[in-house]
Design a protein that fits this description.
This protein is mainly alpha-helical. It has one domain: 2-Layer Sandwich (Zincin-like). The protein is about 50% helix and about 10% strand. It is built from five helices and three strands; from the N terminus they run ααβββααα. It has helices at about 5-10, 15-25, 70-75, 95-110, 115-134, and strands at about 35-40, 50, 55. Strands 1-3-2 form a three-stranded mixed β-sheet. A hairpin with a 2-residue loop joins β2 (about 50) and β3 (about 55). α2 runs parallel beside α3 (about 70-75), α2 (about 15-25) crosses α4 (about 95-110) and α3 crosses α4 (about 95-110).
Length: about 130
């Protein structure tokens, strides 16, 4: 990773401490000690991937306006819903993702205004309808 990307990522993800605090207020203390972020090459096939102590992200979410910082919040939320508590079988993986999206939305509601939260929920309802239709 170039220094330029590292510098941009540091600015893009400067709300990580707020995200972590917001999640701790809901879920309790972060159990994994240190939390690091690794920006991988652009061909990393996911926006992000959580692991205890380490979140992988693609540089494709480092776009300069922080509009995709929700990906980081989502991955941090997996530190509780996925790494501490998870589904026993893959057929119930939707529980893991569902709880993570719920936690993500709760933190966004705390950090942003009601209008933003309402738009987010409208978008989530559209996603749900598309998933049901598919």
């Amino acid at each position: 990773m170039s220094q330029a990307i590292a510098d941009k990522a540091a600015i893009e993800f400067d709300r990580v401490p707020e995200f972590l605090s917001g999640l701790e207020a809901i879920c309790g203390p972060y159990q994994w000690g240190r939390l690091d972020v690794l920006v991988l090459p652009a061909n990393f096939p996911y926006g992000g991937m959580e692991n205890p102590n380490l979140i992988y992200v693609t540089p494709n979410i480092v776009i300069g306006d922080k509009s995709l910082c929700r990906v980081m919040l989502h991955e941090i939320a997996h530190s509780w819903s996925g790494n501490l508590v998870t589904n026993a079988e893959w057929q119930h993986f939707w529980l893991n993702e569902g709880l993570t999206v719920f936690l993500e939305s709760r933190v966004l509601k705390r950090l942003f205004n009601e209008e933003f939260y309402a738009l987010l929920m409208e978008d989530k309802v559209k996603e749900l309808r598309t998933s049901i239709d598919d």
